[in-house]
Amino acid sequence: MRERAMVVSADDSGIKVVPLISDACINCDKSMCAKRGKPFSVSNPKNVPVKRGDIVKIVSPMLHQVLQALFALALPVLLGVLGYILVPGSEGIKAIAVTLCFVAGAAAVFAVTHFLPPLKSEIADILPF
């Protein structure tokens, strides 16, 4: 993820930004989309000197993206495959096992993503206005 955002607060408690309209919003005909997004916290590992009103580029670290892909995509599929391999019986029983294991994996992904705090994006750079 690489997006632009405006810094709304930068103090000792952290940095909060609001997302700015991206290229994906150009073809949208909804007027609500043109409004500012919901503020969220970001980290600043490069110690970029930011102040309120700065336009910054925020990125999601590659490690976060890889972990998300492995967890959200690979876990349910892997559990489905294990359900097929480990459950003895007819094809109908195996199909039920695959479905139940896949749903269990999807439920685990849902539980983790809704009950754990999200990983923070990072400020990569300050952009010119």
Protein described:
This protein is an alpha+beta fold. Helices cover 39% and strands 25% of the residues. It contains two helices and five strands, in the order ββββααβ. It is rod-shaped and about 65 Å long. The two termini are 20 Å apart.
Question: Structural class given helices, strands, pairing?
Answer: alpha+beta
Q: Which strands sit side by side, in order, in the main sheet? A: 1-2-3-5-4
Helix content: 25-40%
Mean pLDDT: 83
Distance between the termini: 20 Å
**How many distinct beta strands?**
5
The dominant shape is rod-shaped
Order of helices and strands: EEEEHHE
Largest sheet: 5 strands, mixed, barrel
Secondary structure layout:
Blueprint: E1 2-11, E2 14-19, E3 40-43, E4 55-59, H1 62-86, H2 91-115, E5 121-127
Parallel strand pairs: 3-5
Antiparallel strand pairs: 1-2, 1-4, 2-3, 4-5
Helix pairs in contact: 1-2
Condensed summary:
The chain is α+β, with helices and mostly antiparallel strands and 129 residues long. 39% of the residues lie in helices and 25% in strands.
